[in-house]
């Protein structure tokens, strides 16, 4: 199976499992992930999703070039891009757990996440120009917003590889941990998120995504609207009461 899923408590895991291709991204893999996320979108018990690799050497080395070369139509390529980029429409937080190679479309997949945590073995690159094309799953737009235009220019125009610690210092990932601690660190982060109220998680993610898409004035106005809307939630009342009573909140996700 190229995709394996697990659900435990409020955490859903999507595991990439194609060792022979180092998790090269193909259409079938994208369809499976899209279907899973569509199902989990409406599952009120799942609050956060982890996307990770079961392949020791790689998170993903990018698009499956063999499949792309044998499907030489614009329709196939557009369908491929639409399916993979649909991940960004998922309303709940996604944590990307990155080990080994995250190249090309693999890095672009990671950039669709909300939190990126890398092992110290992770290596990042956008090598598309070396095979006569350019990034097509978001790197020319998302990467400059994460690490700055000139560093993104360097990575994309040269294909230069960067290690995990450089990626962290540039702001590409939030933290770097030893390989043997990656799973636990990601799980701990997911548990911290899962302890929150689902409606507020969705509102917070929506506001954060707008930071990439709207001018500051519009983004601040939208944030205020979302903030005020939380006061219609039972969970907001519970959160305030729990704080005043010096106890942990018990959220009902409503």
Automatic annotation (TrEMBL):
| Protein's GO biological process | fatty acid beta-oxidation
Q: Which UniProt keywords apply?
A: Lyase
Q: Where is the signal peptide?
A: none
Top enzyme class of this protein?
Answer: lyase
- Single GO molecular function: enoyl-CoA hydratase activity
What family is reported? Belongs to the enoyl-CoA hydratase/isomerase family.
The name this protein goes by in its record: Putative enoyl-CoA hydratase echA8
Which species expresses this protein natively?
Candidatus Bodocaedibacter vickermanii
């Amino acid at each position: 199976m190229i995709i394996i899923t697990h659900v435990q408590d409020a955490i859903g895991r999507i595991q990439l499992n194609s060792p022979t291709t180092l998790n090269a991204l193909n259409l079938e893999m994208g369809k499976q992930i899209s279907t899973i996320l569509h199902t989990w979108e409406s599952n009120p018990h799942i609050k956060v999703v982890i996307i990770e690799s079961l392949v020791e050497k790689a998170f993903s080395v990018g698009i499956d070039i063999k499949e792309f070369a044998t499907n030489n139509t614009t329709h196939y390529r557009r369908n491929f891009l639409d399916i993979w980029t649909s991940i960004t429409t998922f309303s709940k937080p996604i944590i990307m757990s990155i080990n080994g190679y995250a190249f090309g479309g693999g890095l672009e997949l990671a950039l669709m996440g909300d939190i990126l945590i890398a092992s110290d073995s992770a290596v990042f690159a956008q090598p598309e120009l070396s095979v006569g094309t350019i990034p097509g799953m978001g790197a020319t737009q998302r990467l400059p917003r994460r690490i700055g235009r000139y560093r993104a220019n360097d990575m994309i125009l040269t294909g230069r590889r960067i290690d995990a610690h450089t990626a962290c210092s540039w702001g590409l990932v939030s933290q770097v941990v030893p390989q043997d601690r990656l799973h636990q660190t990601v799980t701990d982060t997911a548990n911290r998120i899962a302890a929150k109220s689902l409606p507020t998680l969705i509102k917070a993610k929506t506001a954060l995504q707008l930071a990439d898409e709207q001018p500051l004035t519009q983004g601040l106005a939208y944030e205020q609207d979302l903030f005020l809307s939380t006061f219609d939630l039972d969970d907001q009342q519970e959160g305030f009461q729990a704080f005043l009573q010096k106890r942990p909140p018990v959220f009902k996700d409503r």
